[in-house]
Write a structure and sequence with these properties.
The longest helix is centred in the middle third of the chain and has 16 residues, at 52-67. This protein has a six-stranded mixed beta sheet, sandwiched between helices. Strands 6-7 form a two-stranded antiparallel sheet. A hairpin with a 2-residue loop joins β2 (29-34) and β3 (37-43). It has a single domain, classed as Endonuclease/exonuclease/phosphatase (Deoxyribonuclease I, Chain A, 4-Layer Sandwich), CATH 3.60.10. It is globular, with a radius of gyration of 16 Å. It has 141 residues and is of the alpha+beta class. It has four helices and eight strands; from the N terminus they run ααβββαβαββββ. The mean pLDDT is 83.
Length: 141
């Protein structure tokens, strides 16, 4: 996540630098606001994490609390969510409820249809669909 912060600092146009604030940085997520856009990068607990569901739900609730008082027009939310939406689970339901509350839509349909993977290890050929992005409904995709 520190990498995202560094990347944003390097790539933000000079005219937006004064409008960029670090809203919150926690162990599992970072929230940055650039003008009227809120960027949320997350690293959710993996399947091997004890109390995974509780930690997952707490993380989403904390993010909601951190942005509730912000004035923004759009949100870009994403990262390693460690959930596969092809498998129906409580975490998927919680995540979809979170996105509905914030007026977000996942952008799965932007992946190449012949390779539905968001993570790939070229050496081994391993792939997964655990990294996801969602954007505000009003952002053209």
């Amino acid at each position: 996540m520190v990498g995202l912060l560094v990347a944003l600092q390097l790539y933000i146009q000079k005219c937006l630098a004064a409008k960029t604030i670090l809203v919150k940085k926690e162990s599992r997520y970072i929230v940055i606001q650039v003008g009227q856009i809120v960027f949320i990068n997350v690293y959710m607990p993996s399947a091997s994490t004890s109390c995974r569901e509780e930690e997952f739900i707490d993380c989403l609730a904390s993010i909601t609390n951190d942005i509730v008082d912000l004035q923004y027009s759009d949100i870009i939310f994403g990262g390693d969510l460690n959930v596969d939406f092809a498998l129906s689970c409580n975490l998927c339901s919680n995540l979809q409820h979170f996105d509905e509350e914030l007026g977000l839509k996942f952008v799965f349909d932007k992946l190449p249809h012949d390779s539905m993977a968001t993570f790939r290890v070229e050496l081994t050929g391993a792939t997964s669909l655990l990294d996801h992005f969602a954007v505000s409904h009003c952002i053209p995709t």
